[in-house]
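## tool: complex_structure
## caller: assistant
## args:
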Amino acid sequence: MGLMIASCSKYPTYTVNTSDLDMVWTQYKETADFTQYKTYYIPDSILMDSNATAEEIAYMQEYYQTILDKINSNMQARNFVKVDSSDNPDLGMGVSIITRTTYVYSYSWWYYYPGYWGYPGYSYYYPWGTYMGSYEEGALIIDLADLKNIDQSNKLIDALWAAMIGGVLSNNDGLIDKRLIDQIDQAFEQSPYLLTN
Amino acid sequence: MKKYILITILVMLAVVITKPAAAQLETHWELQWNISIPTSDFKDYIDETSIRGLEFGGNYHFETNVMLGGAVGYGAFFKKTDRITVEYNNNTITAIHFRDLYSYYFLVEGGYAYQSDFFISPYARIGIGAYYTEQIVQIGLLYWKDESWDFGLRPEIGALIEVPNSGVGFIVNAKYNTVFNYGNDLENLNYLTIGLGMIFGF
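## result:
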């Protein structure tokens, strides 16, 4: 009878650890030909959501260089060349960190990017028409924008590629875990089209 | 599909035709623990055996050895994958998939039980009716839930084992569930179930 009562349980038989919910999600513009791009610019700073406290920003700053180094090494392994914003880069990269729950990934969040790339007043958007969805946990987001083919009349900058590395934050302070930073390589690994000559 | 419906109708007709001449002998109530094994494309989705299954049913047994009744029950299937990479259009996601599927069924049954002088009665029957499926998928932080009602069919073979002069017995069987046009990335939902249980009413 004990077995039959156990058979009524609706809870799954597997166990779920915090890191089991980590995910690496990438999207790209399907019509993009990445071989037409060679140079990219990435700001030294990383955007954090407006809810982040000064303490959290200070905490994350310890990881900024690690994050940027990982991105740069991956981009350079794909034959892209890092340049300054004044060198008319083909691509603009942006890195953001979300540390608070219930944050919806939307256009408005990316208002700051064009200014970083030297195009204040322009809009940055995802031409594939869908967002990466909503999520309620921490995330590290990497964006790659097309600065070579800007729609000057409408002041629009197309996204070419975006990566969202998300997971449940295991520390009580709501700070993004280093665990997620370690998955930057996977974002590039699952994007083999991100390659130039 | 038509073939299955025809078989079901024939079984029903057999019961109706024989009923006027056959007095109801007894009613057996069945309580079973079901172990279910996904098959066909369901196996590609969840390849782990379910031990979460429970079923309650009852059957009238007629002099002609025909039995008619019904059953309600459920089976729960779970799978936690390795961290895998899946592509969909311009999306690529690397994450662990958590796949849960709950299958509830409400069946009318008809069949034939061979009555021997021995205390074991082999039987064959077919169940037909509604399957309600709840499918939950979690990929990393993403979560989907689908629910659907579908038509299904379940042929079954087994044996009724009577404990003499006790009013109870045991049942053991194998049944093959087919939920037609299930959808949600699976054409049909198929699983083989091994049932073990008790019978009351001998």
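## assistant note: Chain B has one domain: 2-200. The beta strands of chain B are 24-38, 52-62, 66-88, 91-113, 120-139, 142-162, 168-179, 189-200. Handing back to user.
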